Fold each of these.
Amino acid sequence: MIWKGLGVLAGAAGVVMLGVVGLSWAVVHVVPDFGEGFAEADSHPDGSVDFVPSGIGGQLRVSGDREATMELGEGFIEGPGFVLAGSNGKLFFESGPLSVATVYVEDLAFFPEPEDCELSPGQINEDLGLAAAHLECPQLNDIRDNGSISVEGYIALPADMVIERDLPDLGGTVTVGDETWEIAEAYLLIGPEFNFGGEPEPVRLDMWTSDYESGLNFEMNRETESLMLSSVYSAGGESEPAPGSCSISTEFLVQVNPTDTIERLDFDCEAVDVTGAGTVTITGNVVFHKSTVGESDH
């Protein structure tokens, strides 16, 4: 399956919830650090992007009625888009396909059309979920006719905004006694440690069949990141297995962006009491989406 842009978090009903919540992921405060090879890439007259980024950010040259260098060392999601910001400027990006929606440089504001700026994807940092790109906007006009500028340089953004990749399909198969469940959705959302009332916020991996009539719930220990089967939902109702009844392992598959990964869960549970089915064995292999959501000051 090919996922692109912030739509990586969208899907059927359960994953839509994850997409909406997941867009508030932590503000990334960084000193612009694009990685080895940035200086060489920046000097290429053809605008080629041959460096691997090691941090979100941007370095752009501004010419025309303003002469400046934009050092964009802060990145965060805002609404349906992504923002790169610095002391003297800010860029708003839209995804699917990636485009520049707004440019602020000092006291000037620009709202380019998609064709006004060219974005050339570069290399990807698979470990961090980042991708480089060359950005060029030859002529932007301030909306109040206060000036015109050109913008050119390099940026590093969450990889799923910039490039398309073949990513594993979510879901898998779970066997509950004599029944086989085809899991259509599987997601794990790691939010703030405490809720608004100051109570510990549990972390759960939820997986469901397409009709939402059957599913499993695993609870994660924040300190050890270990998982424990906590609930089984079936036609007979909800069951709560005894702790320690399962052998569980996870495998990392791919870093989608700095806060999202795709992983696989393998589990084998013996002698689980399931309402309506009796004491059964539960086994499964399920690919799930893991998203880490932090506090945001925007």
Amino acid sequence: MENYIKLETISLKDHPEINEKWVQQKIEEDPSILGLGNLSLRQSEKMQQTGGRLDILLQDDDGDSDTRYTVELQLGKTDETHIIRTIEYWDNERKRNQDYNYVAVIIAEDITNRFFNVISLFNGSIPIIAIKLTAIKIKDMIGLHFTTVLGLITHDEEEEAGEGADRAYWIKLGSEDTVKMADTLLSYINGFATGFELNYTKRYIGLSRNGMAGKNFVSFTPRKSKLKLVVKLEKNDEIDEIINGSDLNLLMYNNRRRQYRFALKQEDLSNSKEILVDLFKKAYESFPWK
């Protein structure tokens, strides 16, 4: 016997009982239904200094834990005010707390070609994701299906062509103090392997040696009050034990890129100097160009 059921899609905007708040609550209860990974609810209905409220603020718990998503939901068709509100609230949040990366998420039941093209124009300069919401009725139950129709334009962290920047760029994006933290960590590296310099790109601060870039067994991303540190190392029990026994704030381990990622405070550079130097040495010795 063929198991088949015809799915009935319905418009929630025209529904007599279900409203936007109900859909928002379902997302807050289980943010994974958006299909953006392992997310958790950070805040709901967050008041904005420019007026209005951000529908949902989510945080990425599986990828970089310094990534947050500002989510704006609208039943029916998206329109100009929905797009403007999404970008405005994203901009407010990233200015409010510059220690995090923020991604704008716009959700609607209908994203027309016209507005899809408008949103696409922003993608690349503004990190924005567009998601189409479809409501499905099965007997007396309603299911929600979310489809990403416009994802982020991503760049490989190792691709540095056309990504030139300078020290002033990172002082403005981060702070003078956090850029100086990168200077200090560079001095730790040159303590056991001389000739390294900071290589400023628009995505991160890497390393160069004798004028040759791409020596990134470690890299740095200055924020306003913290420094994001990436150490390229194969994950193993010995390294995990070293890190777990320290006071370092490990954000995550990226299996695909084979990277440990940390968020460093100023005091970590002195309190955990020996551990940092040990990790740097291990990364240097295992780096493929050696």
Amino acid sequence: MSLETNKATVRYLLENALNSKRLSAVDEVLSPNFVDHTNPPGWTEGPQGLKEIFAVFHAAFPDFHYTTEFEVAERDLVVVRGTYTFTHKGEFFGIAPTGKYVITTGMHLFRLADGKIMEHWCNNDDLGTMRQLGVVS
């Protein structure tokens, strides 16, 4: 697949499954053997696990939105860096809703093969998020 096609596949996932809450898009672009290297311990593996984590975010942050600031592709890899914005309106991993609006950032690395996303790694500013929610100082 071309680098542009790989970038478009990642954009499709982020825009449709994450931002538009159309979780069926996960099955369209992820390999059945997808591995997410950032899952919480004991989390469901594969595409179903990604759908479940997106559903957690959608329930806790109904206005959740990810904006890609840049993307880079090389070989079978796509890296995106972006900004997340959301309001904490539902429970999030045991944290009661705070009503606080959060702006945070993250970087994601995807590996693709045959037009499907095979693997995912990410580094998000989780500490910054927890500070904005008032969970830590």
Amino acid sequence: MRASGAATKNPSQQRWISKVLILVVSLLVFLEGGSRLILSLNSIRQRVMGIDDASYRLQWVRLHQQHREWTGPFAVYDPTRGWAVKSDIQDMRLSDGTILNTNSRGLRGKTEYEYQKPTGKQRIVILGDSFTFGSEVADDDTYSHYLASSLPNTEVLNLGVQGYGHDQMLLYLKEQGVKYDPDIVIVGFTYIDVYRNIESFFAYAKPKFKVVSGTLQLTNVPVPTPDHVLAMEPFRPRAFDLLQILGEKLRWTFGKNETEAREVTKLLLAQIIATTRSIGAVPVFVYLPVHDEIEPVPQFGVVAASPPVPDREQFLSGICQKENIPCLFLRSRFQEEVKRGVDFRAKSHWNAKAHEVGGEEIKNFLLRSNLIAKIQNNSVSETGSKAQN
């Protein structure tokens, strides 16, 4: 009887618990309603949105509802990498007026490449994002096409994909790039891709590598389909999205995300290097200057002086020195051309002239570093060895 009486709550306790529950529920409803209002008003939402999974997901949903895709009309869902370039595109006219073609495996241009490298040919595979893919320029105006046209007896395969981070480049290299038996693997490095490596949603849902005890652990694979993302959207609490957005803003403010992005990027690039070397190919990194790295944008009429070697370039240079790989930085050449009055900008990417200059510098670097000559000698030695056998 005593135990039973102790377990029974008196009326005042029950009223107090009820009031607390009502308060908690009211607060949750208020937070959810307020969050939905904030994220639905364009003027407020644009100020709130940041660099985080929730912001990118909400942006993708809005674009998708408008029958637009951040990845472009030439992208297709991929369960491992999130998205890939569609295959067999023929003369697709894009909104910027350029014409796009892809081959049967989704590589930029009309040229078909068998996995088996033609006898006596050199082969270069290039990984990268939209600057390597060649957004806003024609098939024949990409720096990869310039390389193929200017290097004799050499095939250059453009594996650039709009919106990719280095995590997706690594997976693309392992899935497809190594099958082409390249002699050289070039990474078209833009620093903005470093930040994509800590997201599980960017232009669309994507894979994400987490650092666990100093090693990479792949997560968010298989990547959810667009139908699944849209089906789950009505059940996602907007209050949680808003808290995530605000929390990530704090992490960016205190440098936490910058540190995390660099940590995972170092490991991803090391994996690209190791994968390249495992097939007997030479890894080469090329720092592609973009946006204000080419021509600083004045603020209040004043252009801030840049240090001799910007921190972003030092980051990549340190990796190249540690891993002992050839590394090329294009910024100085671009800035020299800008001083001469050359305009390198399309709407938001390189124009054809920038690709031409970039391709020329990469070609000269490969020749100057004796990478092409070494490959030619190796090809001759292998051919002679096979003939003797």
